[in-house]
Amino acid sequence: MFVRVLGSAAGGGFPQWNCNCKNCSSVRAGADGYKARTQSSIAVSSNEEDWLLFNASPDILTQLKSAGLRLQPANNVRDSGIKSIVLMDAQIDHTTGLFMLRESSSPLVIYSTKEVKQELTSGNPIFDVLDFYCKVDWVEINVEAEDFVNIPKVQDIELKFMPLKSEAPPFSPFRGKPRRGDNVGVQIMDAITKKKIFYAPGLASIEEHLLQPMKESDLLLVDGTFWTDTEMIDNGLSKKLAREMGHNPQSGPGGMIEDLNKINGPKKILIHINNSNPILNEKSIERQFLRDNNIDVSFDGMEISL
Ligand code: MLT
Ligand code: MN
Ligand code: ZN
Predict the structure, then answer these.
(1) Is 304 a domain residue?
(2) 238, part of any domain
(3) Cα angle at 156 between 151 and 161, to 5 degrees?
(4) At 209, which CATH number?
(5) How many structural domains does the chain have?
(6) Does the beta carbon of 201 sit less than 6 angstroms from any atom of ligand 1?
(7) Residue 130 domain-assigned (yes or no)
(8) I need a surface site. Which of 138, 173, 185, 237 has the fewest CB within 10 A?
């Protein structure tokens, strides 16, 4: 199974267009130890021909351009390697790239929970707008299903979803009143090799029901948004705590590093890194602390074969 990180940043990307924090200024100036990043998304394939896209970031066109021939088999005059799309939530940074795929010559096959579909047909009616272009062929994600489900258009890739306690988008009437299905985590399995990836770009905590699927996976690609709970406040960027935004910070008691240290075996990689996070500086002590704990940080264009 192959996974390509199309984008490794949280909402806003890195640098964020209007941000002059230390990180954004440094990457903009080309400082050593900083890499620019687009908003989070991955693509997975078992045969390197048909790919399953997880989240459609507003940066998708740039991401597909950088992927070059990797995601473009060019079997037809209008064609793409992306055969189906999975949405992990209804956030802007994970869904608005769908507009950029409107030229599709067949309806976009999109998997989401009914809660996410509801947001995308009301507060941010992307699905309704796409109906005027390529149309959407929606497939419901069932977070109660106990077995892996097969993805007909993507050979040998099977998925099992788990509900996550996180947050609905800020525009949702359910922000602050989370529902089961607003956010999902997923185990991605190659049906032949049985290798597994656990993917959760937004993770408020490693809940009890996630421990087993995480322990039995070969690779964890999880929420790396913030280093501390007060990071946005400390940098004068916002008044919100990381945890209020549905993201468990890496450091400190009950943080992601402490939780990940309870899981032995899988390779651990962070994704969805916010531009305020000190780990974006490869020379920082925070980044060294991650290395000391065997936690890697994904980057745009990173590929892993399992
Ligand atoms: C989040 O996950 O909280 C988002 O990155 C916020 C956003 O897209 O603005
Ligand atoms: Mn996000
Ligand atoms: Zn910034």
Answers:
(1) no
(2) yes
(3) 50
(4) 3.60.15.10
(5) 1
(6) no
(7) yes
(8) 173
**Any domain includes 292:** yes
Q: Which of the listed residues 92, 237, 248 should we mutate to test ligand 1's pocket, taking the one with most ligand atoms within 8 A of CB?
A: 92
The residues whose Cβ lies within 5 A of ligand 3, an ion, are 19, 21, 24, 275
CA distance 20 to 235: 11
169: Cβ–Cβ under 8 A, 6 or more apart, which residues? 89, 90, 91, 92, 119, 123, 124, 175
Q: What is the pLDDT along the chain (306 residues), one digit of tens a residue?
A: 999 999 999 999 999 999 999 999 999 999 999 999 999 999 999 999 999 999 999 999 999 999 999 999 999 999 999 999 999 999 999 999 999 999 999 999 999 999 999 999 999 999 999 999 999 999 999 999 999 999 999 999 999 999 998 889 999 999 999 999 999 999 999 999 999 999 999 999 999 999 999 999 999 999 999 999 999 999 999 999 999 999 999 999 999 999 999 999 999 999 999 999 999 999 999 999 999 999 999 999 999 999
Q: What is the pTM of this model?
A: 0.97
